[in-house]
Model the fold of this input.
Amino acid sequence: MAVQHAPAPPVQFQTSPSRYRHFQFQVQGDLARLSMNVQQFEPQREGYELKLNSYDIGVDVELADCLQRLRFEHPKVRTVVVTGSLERVFCAGANIVMLRSSTHGFKVNFCRYTNETRLAIEDASDKSGLRFLAALNGTASGGGYELALACDKILLVDDRNSAVSFPEVPLLGVLPGTGGLTRLTDKRKIRRDRCDVFSTLAEGIKGKRAVEWNLVDAIAPLSRWDEAVAEMARSMAAGTKARGEQGIELESIEPEGSDQVASAYGPLERTRWRHLDLSISRSARCAELTLRLPERWETTQAQALSAQSGWWILRALRELDLCLCNLRFNEPNLALVLLRVQGNPKAWRDTDNLLAASTHWLVRETRFFAARVLKRLENTAKSFYAIADQHAAFVGTGLELALACDRIYAKDDEQCAVHFGVTPMNAGVLPMSNGISRLQTRFLGTPEQASQVLAQTEDFDTARASELGLATFAPDAIDWEDELRLAIEERTSFSPDGMTGMEQNLRFAGPETMETKIFGRLSAWQNWIFQRPNAVGERGALTTYGTPLRPSFDTQRT
Amino acid sequence: MTGIDYSQKIPNNVDLASDKRLQRALEAWQPNYLEWWNSVGPTDFNTKDVYLRTAISAEKDGWAHFGYVKMPDYRWGIFLEPRDEKRTVGFGDHFGEPAWQQVPGEYRNWLRRLIVTQADTEPASVEQQRLLGHTAPSLYDLRNLFQVNVEEGRHLWAMVYLLHTYFGKDGRDEAEELLQRRSGNPDHPRILGTFNEPCTDWLSFFCFTMFTDRDGKFQLLALAESGFDPLARTCRFMLTEEAHHMFVGQTGVARVIERTCQVMQAHPDKDVRDYGAIPLDVIQKYINFWASSSTDLYGAEISSNSANFFRSGLKGRAYEERYDDHLALEGSYAFENLVDGQLVREEVPLRNAMNEVLRDEYVKDNEKGIAYWNRVCERMGNPFRFRLPQRRFHRKIGVYAGGHFDLDGNALSQAEWERRQGDWLPTAKDRAFVQGLMQPVTTPGKSAGWIAPPAKGVNDQPADFLYVRA
Ligand SMILES: [Fe+2]
Ligand SMILES: [Fe+2]
Done:
């Protein structure tokens, strides 16, 4: 079968429960039930069928949406049962034909996004105390088991047939799940030799042995399945607390208009959101992403709560998250994003004071969400330059955005109001995936520099930002335009692969966590395997899977 | 060696005595097997003397010996067809290479799965049929039931021999689990759907042996081609036994039809129910049920497993030698796919359609059986004609499971299906009626009123032969 790269229609990242096609989502009291019911004939693009609850990006977008809504719309929920609506099958993992017919870039983006979704499950458990029970009513293979691994507990039906499995290595010649081996070794702490056996056994492991090896937490027979699920869900709920009573509804976010604007590198197509402008030049392979701080903002907790999902920071984060996803999937050729934050820095100070100190569940959720969006940015395979020019307000959470970028260009010009500043949000409230703050990561060898930055009680300008080690370059008014132009032209001329590799190496200095390992292993190994003839060559295992041909391998070990 | 060594605890023609490790493993499994037989086999008849045939050699002629035996004392053993030293792999990527006497490591898991799936059906059918002895319509039928039962037990032995011999600890674990799963048990059911369906009346039993054992025949034919020689030789011998099971079904249903035709002839304007016979259209419904359920056993139409099994030389096509091209790399197979509710003609690579190729052979064979029953109608001057439901009808597995179809394979709406399925499948009322007829007849030479007597005795015994005695 020829490998065909189907032209991908844009991926839509906005959805809501009433529009879910692949999940049944119910909330009853403190229990939510999320049942996977993938519609075979509703793939995200043509060319494959979603058999056996296999998933594609369209399915995962719904899962991600649901997790997000659980956190904001259902603060009463304590336990989430993740199960399947098909008989004998929980979930067969990522759809193979979809993977095979995707471009390499799409595959990587897909894996990255699905990883983020699974990490969002763990984040919800860790930060919000939501407990996830994977109730595997049938076989969970590949990404299906990975989804289960992301949950706190796994209950597997014991019908003498249903198993958990990672068939990727034996059947497809690629790595399991979407980071699955890391979860086996580091999360469930399964012995490496057993992981080795498990990962080469296409049919997987079932029943008592699955419990013995800690692949699942418990098994239950079919006749008392519902009971066992309910029991386990109840006991998990007992170990945690509801966060709040009444949730808010996450309003749908739509662009408010679009137009064309001129720029130094040609006309830009600009999409205006409430708090963001995203302007794109496909010919220059460059985008400008500008967060416009509101002119009036919620200053007290009461105001923030009554604004609900219209609270400016929550809305702005959601818009930013959506734009990042769109940039990744729907603008694959863009190389560089120029990120600006503009407006009154006081907006940050007021907002951050709330975000950092409040114990109200909604404020906390917003804070956790900010951490996830920042991580999304850092996991995006684009170059990011923070641009501090007129009206720049890189303060607090805004400063985190700048610190998440690969470089910070700050204009050193008295005519130009540039604001940098720190708030409590810079002191570890928004950890990176390596578990430490962006300042700590930036000044890994000189922690005193981080402290020095944190000691700034007032806003400061470019010159001070330079001294403090925040600005990468601080051109003056004369050089600014040209420096910027050159930086853009140079960046977009480099090999995109070289850039992705370099950036991913540089962004996460410091300690390893399960999260950094998952993304690190994924980009280093999976992306390598995905490119190798042994997987995707004419007789590669991924190519020949499901065809009459057997794979044939280049036997050289690398 | 082909002679069977009956001096051993486990009769065999594989020189078990020389492999102490294997012998010990099988001898350890044997009591568990007997415990299984004694708890979920035809338990209530364990003390009866049953006139059974026992294999005494694996040669084509003269392999069976007839005599009275109590079922738990049946000499379940291990019989393989004689080995052909020159045998080569007959299909797939290894075509022409010497057949394997050991499991190739690369294919170990696939082979184990194939063997376990086949093996699981053997004890399953014994469990499904375990209570039928209480309602046998004649001693002849009672004996046939038990013959089928003990041979299914032996088929289990044959598969367990392979698991123990070639699959190490995993194989022994699987052999244990074969005794732990139970037909129809919600917690640990048998692997395949049909083998969890209740089979509590004799019309179902005859349909089962006709249609479900015939699936067994074609699975065995495909496995008899296996490049793994011990599996091929095992299956070839099992086929000789399987033939009798289908004979029981084929002639059993024919005798029910014959009886109904007789009643219709004698009382043309009456309901045959009033005379204790089963209406022909009810028989047709039972056919529809068991034929469609058994058609599922071949698996999905397009299957990467089937392609894998074929290319690796593990499972071939029935009568592989009749094909010219044993690689099946070039050809394609056209079938009607069900895409979003529409039937769409699609070509798939031949290797991926091997399930369907085997199903084709099965359907053809079923058609012959239907023709045989229609000849009974014809001979009796009855205009009724039986039919095989089109393969899309009432499917639970494969693409057609996603829709509803009538007996001709035309798509139906859900509502239409709900409305009409009672015309095609046995209703609760039909089942209750048939169940009501199930009264044991134990007088030698006599048969129940809903079935005609057999044309010929077992091993040429007279009509009033005492096939089962206390
Ligand atoms: Fe059998
Ligand atoms: Fe049989």
Notes: Chain A touches chain B at residues 1, 40-41, 49, 158-161, 170, 201-203, 221-223, 545-550 (CB under 8 Å).
